[in-house]
Write a structure and sequence with these properties.
There is one protein chain. This protein is of the alpha/beta class. It folds into two domains: 25-63 and 209-411, 3-Layer(aba) Sandwich (Aminopeptidase); 80-195, no CATH class. 30% of the residues lie in helices and 27% in strands. The chain is built from ten helices and 17 strands. The strands form three sheets. Strands 1, 2, 4, 7, 9, 10, 13, 14, 15, 16 and 17 form an eleven-stranded mixed β-sheet that branches. It has a four-stranded mixed β-sheet with strand order 3-8-6-5, covered by helices on one side. The chain has a two-stranded antiparallel ribbon with strand order 11-12. Helix 8 (327-333) packs across helix 10 (393-407). The longest helix is centred in the N-terminal third of the chain and has 30 residues, at 2-31.
């Protein structure tokens, strides 16, 4: 009798494991299929993927947060292209190459100098130090930069004058940068005409609330956007993004299922598929500006786990920013080493910690790290051959299980992961 009971239990566990593996495989095939054309930001295919992920969240039983519409969290991007600009400063006409204007206003005119805060960069000042400080100011301002800094000014002007997408700024503030030896603004006449192009993308967010705690939350995340259509290589032009980062998305979905079906954690959880990561972490930046960050205790971001790392080998993964908080070491400690091991990032010189969505939250002092098995010499990275056929499903399942087992003990209320005392570079 015991023998038959054992056989039944074995078959039951095997069937569950096989079913989970089959579902993950099916999800990976869909997300990396030619049907989604590489999931480019702003494309209809990215929206199709977003709605599919939202439906999966619904089937799992996750709650749609109050700030999202049916799991979709709107992220509005704006591209600004200047069509015309003219500046008269203290009675002097300033040539177009000696000033630039940043902001998301379509057409505007400034004739009152009192409406902008003024900064003056003298010939002895460190222009980049001042630049870093004043860019954080949430109001309109003008900067007069001494001609001693001409080369720096020209570099900044070239960079900011290129049309590029950025998060929509509802405040619609602007900044004026002028190469001039003037030290004050007595009078001003500024005219600017811009062409604005808007794009809307969506983060996809599901919540697993805890009855024990609503003010202590963890985030499990990945990004579902990729590069779309690329130059043709051997008849293929679709950057399918199977490893980057469909593998992370299916991991987030599978973790949501595990946490929903098994013993409930004592802390509330967000499961997030970010958009806009490939453009500059825009999805995570928008979410960080939306959430009450005091309630966010930690973040586990999953980035490219499609096959084993060539330097660390199978049954392992690495964690970026390993030494920056207590979290990675606890994950390693909570994992049975005979089954799986978490290592420090072997490629710190690649600055991977700052190149994915964890960086956005780490910048606010939140322990936020990426789990990855990406290899430095991976020739499929950001290429058209990042295909489903390259993925190793058993490896992906092992990484998912290791993340689940290693973080679950930290979801008890008596565990505090602390903070990251680190300012990251989220401008990629």
């Amino acid at each position: 009798m015991k023998y038959y009971l054992f056989i039944l239990l074995f078959i039951s566990f095997y069937s569950i494991g096989f079913s989970q593996r089959s579902k993950v495989e099916k999800e990976l095939k869909y997300l990396s299929s030619d049907q989604l054309k590489g999931r480019a930001n702003g494309s209809p295919e990215l929206l199709e993927a977003a709605n599919w992920i939202a439906e999966e969240y619904k089937q799992i039983g996750l709650k749609s947060p109050a700030f999202a519409d049916n799991y979709l969290h709107e992220v509005r991007l704006v591209s600004v292209e200047n069509q015309h600009k003219n500046l008269i400063l203290n009675g002097l006409s300033i040539s177009k190459e000696k000033f630039f204007v940043l902001g998301q206003k379509e057409n505007f005119k400034l004739t009152n100098a009192d409406k902008v805060k003024l900064f003056v960069v003298s010939e002895y000042d460190d222009i980049m130090a001042i630049f870093s400080q004043i860019r954080l100011i949430n109001e309109s301002y003008a900067v007069l930069i001494h001609p001693e800094h001409t080369r720096r000014f020209e570099r900044l002007s070239r960079y900011f004058s290129r049309p590029k997408r950025e998060l929509e700024n509802e405040e619609a503030n602007f900044s004026l940068w002028v190469l001039s030896d003037e030290e004050s603004i007595q009078n001003i006449d500024l005219t600017v005409i811009n062409n604005l192009n808007s794009t809307t993308i969506f983060n996809v967010i599901g919540e697993l609330p805890s009855p024990s705690s609503q003010d202590r939350k963890w985030i499990y995340s990945s990004h579902y956007d990729h590069l779309g259509i690329m130059p043709n290589v051997n008849g293929d032009s679709i950057a399918n993004g199977a490893n980057d980062d469909a593998s992370g998305v299916v991991a987030v979905l599978e973790l949501a299922r595990k946490f929903s079906k098994g013993e409930r954690p004592e802390k509330s959880l967000y499961f997030v598929a970010f958009a806009g990561e490939e453009l500059g972490l825009f999805g995570s930046k928008k979410l960080a500006s939306t959430l009450d960050l005091d309630s966010i205790e930690a973040m586990i971001n999953i980035e490219m786990i499609g096959f084993p790392n060539e330097d660390l080998g199978p049954q392992s993964a690495y964690i970026t920013g390993y030494e920056l908080s207590y979290l990675p070491a606890f994950m390693a400690k909570n994992t049975k080493v005979e089954k799986f091991m978490f290592f420090p990032d072997p490629y710190t010189y690649l600055d991977l910690f700052n190149r994915s969505d964890n960086a956005t939250f780490a910048n606010y002092g939140i322990p936020a790290h990426s789990v990855s098995t990406y290899s430095e010499n991976d020739e499929s990275y950001h290429a058209v051959n990042d295909e489903f056929e390259n993925l190793e499903i058993d490896h992906i399942m092992e990484v998912i299980e290791a993340i689940y087992e290693s973080t679950f003990p930290m979801l008890e209320l008596n565990y505090d992961p602390g903070v990251i005392d680190y300012k990251t570079k989220t401008d990629r």
